[in-house]
Amino acid sequence: EAMRVVSQQYQETVEDVAPPDTLTMLGLGQTRALGGGQDAAELKPLAREVLFFLVDRGQVERDVLLESFWPHHPPGRQVANLHTAIYSLRRMFGKDVILHEGTAYSVNLEIPLEYDVERFERAAGVAAGLPPGDPRRMFALTEAINSYGGALLPEFSSDWVLERRRTLELRYLDLLAQNAQEAMMRDQPAKALQTLRQALEIDPYRDDTNMHFLEALGRLGRRSEVVEHYQRYVRLLSDELGLDPPDELRELYTRLIS
After folding, report:
1. Closest-CA residue to 2 (of 83, 74, 70)
2. Cα separation values, 107 from 27, 217, 232, Å
3. Distance CA 159, CA 156 (A)
4. Which of 109, 115, 132, 140 lies at a 20 to 30 A Cα distance from 177?
C-alpha cells in the first residue's frame, strides 16, 4: 500500500508553472515564502517547513529529510509524505524550484534567492571582521542587529528549528553585547544601556550582559538602579537556577556602590 502511494506520487504531473524570478524567504520573526506572485502561506505548514529546511541547509540527503520530519513513521509512509510535500512546493513555485539529484534534494540555485537569515549572518560576519574601536564597527554592528527580525520560524517547534533558532539568537545576543561595548568605548553609556535592555529581554541569565548593564548604570551615576538590578539578578539566579553570582560580578557591584 505504501509503495502504491509512492508510485502515484511519481506519476502525478506538475503544471508547467514558470519558476519565480526571485524566491524570497523570511524566517526571522515570521514564516513567509514568496515567489512569482505566490505566497506559501496557502500551503500546509509541513510543506513550508520542508522548504525552509532545504533553503537553510542547502543540498540535503533524502534520509536526513525523512528522519528530520517523520522519524516515527514507517519507511513507506515517510517517502510518501516527502513526495507530497515536494509536489506541493513544485505545484506552487514551478517544477524546477526543487531539484532531486540522486538521493539528495535542494532548492534550485539558478533561481535568485533572498533569505533574511543569510542576510543577517552575512552582516554579522562583516561586523566580526572589524577590530574593536574601528570607526566602521559600530555601523556594521548596528546593521547586523537591525537585520535580525526576531526568533527563527516562530510557528514551528521541530528539533532542527529549535537548534537553529538558538544558534541565531546567541549570535544576536553577542552582537548586542559588542554594540554596547563599542558604545561604552565612545562614552555613550545611555546608548549601551538601551542595547543591553534588548539583550536582557531575550536572555536575562547571561552574566556578561548583566555585568555590562551594571557598568553602564554605574557610568551614568545611577547608583540606586545598580543596587536594584544586582539584587534582582541575584534572586533570579537563586530562584530559577540555584546559583550564586560569579565572583567577577560581585566584585564589580562592590566597586560600583563603594
Report:
1. 74
2. 16, 49, 48
3. 9
4. 115
pLDDT digits (tens, 9 = 90+) for 2-57: 555 555 554 445 456 677 889 999 999 999 999 989 999 989 999 999 999 999 99
| DSSP state at residue 40 | G
User: By three-state DSSP, how is residue 98 classified?
Assistant: strand
Dist CA 145 CA 29 (whole Å): 13
Considering the entire predicted model, what is its pTM? Answer: 0.89
Per-residue pLDDT reduced to its tens digit, 72-114: 999 999 999 999 999 999 999 999 999 999 999 999 999 999 9
- What is the grid cell recorded at 92? 506552487
**Cell numbers 537585520: residue:** 147
C-alpha cell at 174: 553577542
